[in-house]
């Protein structure tokens, strides 16, 4: 049987690329990691993702697959051996897709202005608005985390592998630490978001998460260089 060639085009700081790395590791799939540079994108990336021209891209043999959450589903369907990444029940699949999409969209909505819209004149206003929206986002995710924990859809102590929802959310954990250090944006504590905080702490005990996520200090440095944040 011909050995399959699996390549991942990504950036070390991309939460979307990190979730694909975690998915490949969860499935035990051997792959070649190809580091990209946003300022000098390779011809392979541009030809593999001509629509968005961005990472991550999974190239399975010669077939490119784009968009991280779609890639995770592709991985789960192409390599169906345990552990499954998506739940089997239709409602559970709906739940993890819904909340993964919410988290991605809401973080872009909340963090985009903070990263790119701060000036000396509006700093305090942007930070205050960002903190309010960040906290409200977390409180909303708390509701989802409570239901998903009840249905066994998120990583808890004693669970052996990460699921779809964990793969989506885990890469943001390091980012949360970085934006707290840089901008003072802090998730509500356990008194307001007990399920969310428990989920975060449980994810941080997972060996693959610990090995895959970049250090907070490295992310802080990257954000400063990329966005001029101080």
UniProtKB/TrEMBL annotation:
Pfam families named in the record: GST_N
Reactions performed catalytically: RX + glutathione = an S-substituted glutathione + a halide anion + H(+)
Domain GST C-terminal, residue spans: 89-227
Sequence ranges assigned to domain GST N-terminal in this UniProt record: 4-83
Family matches, as InterPro entries: Glutathione-S-Trfase_C-like, Glutathione-S-Trfase_C_sf, Glutathione_S-Trfase, Glutathione_S-Trfase_N, GST_C_Tau, Omega/Tau-like, Thioredoxin-like_sf
Domain of life: Eukaryota
Alphabetized UniProt keyword annotations: Transferase
GO molecular function: glutathione transferase activity
GO biological process terms, semicolon-separated: glutathione metabolic process
EC numbers, comma separated: 2.5.1.18
EC class (word): transferase
GO CC annotations, alphabetized: cytoplasm
PANTHER family registered for this protein in UniProt: GLUTATHIONE S-TRANSFERASE U8, GLUTATHIONE S-TRANSFERASE, GST, SUPERFAMILY, GST DOMAIN CONTAINING
Name of the molecule in the record: glutathione transferase
């Amino acid at each position: 049987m011909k050995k399959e060639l699996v390549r991942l085009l990504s950036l070390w700081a991309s939460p979307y690329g990190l979730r694909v790395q975690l998915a490949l590791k969860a499935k035990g799939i051997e792959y070649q990691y190809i580091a990209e540079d946003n300022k000098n994108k390779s011809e392979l990336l541009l030809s593999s993702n001509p629509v968005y021209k961005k990472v991550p891209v999974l190239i399975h043999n010669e077939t490119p697959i784009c968009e991280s959450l779609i890639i995770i589903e592709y991985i789960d369907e192409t390599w169906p051996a345990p552990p499954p990444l998506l739940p089997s029940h239709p409602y559970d699949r709906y739940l993890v897709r819904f909340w993964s999409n919410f988290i991605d969209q809401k973080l872009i909505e909340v963090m985009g202005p903070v990263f790119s819209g701060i000036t000396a004149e509006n700093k305090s206003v942007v930070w205050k608005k960002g903190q309010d929206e960040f906290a409200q986002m977390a409180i909303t995710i708390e509701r989802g985390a409570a239901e998903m924990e009840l249905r066994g859809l998120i990583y808890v102590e004693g669970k052996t592998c990460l699921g779809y929802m964990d793969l989506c959310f885990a890469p943001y954990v390091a980012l949360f630490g970085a934006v707290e250090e840089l901008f003072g944006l802090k998730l509500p504590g356990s008194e307001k978001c007990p399920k969310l905080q428990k989920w975060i702490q449980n994810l941080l005990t997972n060996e693959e998460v610990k090995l895959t996520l970049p250090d907070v200090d490295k992310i802080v440095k990257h954000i400063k260089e990329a966005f001029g944040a101080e």
